[in-house]
Amino acid sequence: MQTNRLPCAFCAGKRNPSPQYPRGENRTYGENRLVKRCYSLKRNKEFRHVYRKGQSKAARQLVLVYAKAGVKPKQPPLRVGFSVSKKLGNSVVRNRVKRRLRESFGPMIPCVKGGYNLIFIAREPVVDEEFTAIQSAMRSLLRRANLLKEEKKKTNEHSAKRDPEGAEPKQ
Asked: What pTM did the predictor assign?
């Protein structure tokens, strides 16, 4: 079976390539939407560092713990981990929650500032939560932590307030 996959800039093609779609379609699995392994916190040591040195923001469904990352060569500018407690359910439930968290964070990667390690901790309500609610909770936590990149605002001439010509400024 022939594979067709674009390699990640940080993985350098180390992961197994995704399978090709049937009927000869050359598409890849959510290239822009999945959290690739190179963006993940993997070791217990990395998680402990974020828990110790980091700050936290909480919402009803999730907790965000974030810490400034040390800049190392060949490391992505942003790394993220997901933590789901055994209190939430058995392994099937926990893995489903982690998959949904990863999938909802994927599109936000370009919007998040670099140089940080993030951990999202799932709380009980996230198990039955709608997917859009999980995304909005993540976005609001990132906004409250000031981790979202500044979006360029389009200036509209009609919305800008102007003084009429010849009007005297008020003192």
From this structure: 0.69
Distances (CA, A) of 112 to 1, 59, 88, 134, 149: 37, 18, 28, 16, 6
Spatial CA neighbour of 106 closest among 47, 166, 36, 20: 36
Taking only the tens of pLDDT, the chain with its 171 residues reads 555 544 555 555 554 444 443 444 443 444 445 677 777 888 999 999 999 999 999 999 999 999 998 767 666 788 999 999 999 999 999 999 999 999 999 899 888 998 899 999 999 999 999 999 999 999 999 999 999 988 655 545 554 555 556 556 555
Which residue in 127, 149, 145, 148 sits closest to 50, CA to CA? 145
List the structure tokens of 154: 């389009």
Q: State how far the alpha carbon of 4 is from the alpha carbons of 28, 38, 39, 159, in Å.
A: 7, 19, 21, 48
Q: How many residues does the chain have?
A: 171
- How far is 28 from 169, CA to CA, in rounded Å? 60
Separation of alpha carbons 28 and 32, rounded Å: 10
DSSP letters for 73-99: TTS-SEEEEEE--GGG-SHHHHHHHHH
